[in-house]
What we know:
The protein is of the alpha/beta class and 385 residues long. The chain folds into 2 domains: 14-231 and 266-313, Glycerol-3-phosphate (1)-acyltransferase (3-Layer(aba) Sandwich), CATH 3.40.1130; 318-382, no CATH class.
Amino acid sequence: METYNFDDIRSYNTEEIPAAMERLCNQKPFMKVVSTLFPLMPKEQLKQKMLSFTSSTELQLQMVYPFLQYLEANMTTGISLTGLGNIDIEKKYLYISNHRDIILDSALLCAKFIEKKIDTVEIAIGDNLLVYPWIEDLVRVNRSFIVQRGLNARQVLESSKRLSAYLRHTLNERKNSIWIAQREGRAKDSNDLTQESLLKMFNLAGASGSFTDNLKELNICPVSISYEFDPCDYLKAREFQLKRDNPEYKKTPEDDLINMQTGVMGYKGKVVYHISGCINDSLDIIARDTQNRNEQIEKATQLIDYHIHKNFTMTANNKIAYDEIYGDKDYAKDYTTAEKISFEEYLDKQIRKIDLENKDRDFLRMKMLEMYANPLKNYLKANGL
């Protein structure tokens, strides 16, 4: 098997942490962010605290986890992790989930793992989010590895091979589980579908000629993430109109920063993570059903989607949006008039935040309704309802 150098994409090794923390503490923008997150701690004391960390574990337990506890207490009505009985916590898995929030999807999962005394995961993060050089240090000290974007066709293949090898290296040599989103970028309309290209990447460094056997090496475990409220819903709706009005529109790095900040500090209501369990047995069934590689890829993609969709947690918001889009009252008995009025007021409030000259209120509202209705639409299909 081809050997790769992972030094420019991997998370930092323990011996690299002190130097990375020193570089970070010398960055004024970083220290400004940290001071904002921990306003009660004097800046010099905060800096000494950061410089004292000798491992990613210390950083996560003493700085990251307390902040995530603050978010859970103040920006949610509670975060649940269900389905732990579906995994062996001693094993290492490639967790693959739907993608709602740029930062928190993986961070809150790690927080729940910490509470359950389970090792946190290595996190895949696109290099498009490394808006400033110091952000790369920050994510790599926090057990993240870099997924390279914006490459030409030849570079994409080489990068994908190396990334595929790194996944195996992390699971087997570094003995760490991994989190990765089911697609590049968030599903802006919450219609969560796994990209086939992702599974093709998983396959590239496999030891076997068999596609399904190569996937089985990774112990793929789907995770469903359900947010009652998406703080970025209005930003996503705004982007839909901008793309509708100008097909050439592209988000800027500043837009990504606004999305990150809004997602982290915005109100999320009830949040639920559900772990479905490893899909290896189902991959064996796919291999028995068809020898056609393209069909195997399609079926494996659908299998991951099925597990993610099947285990969403539905709230009144999902049901109200679904009823409004499809013009019936299938779920009216499941929510109160007060909940419906509250959700309508919430949508109005979010739409008022959108700063566009030619603001198409009806279009924006429909896009936001779709964001809340699509998880229920997929849930119903997956559960045969």
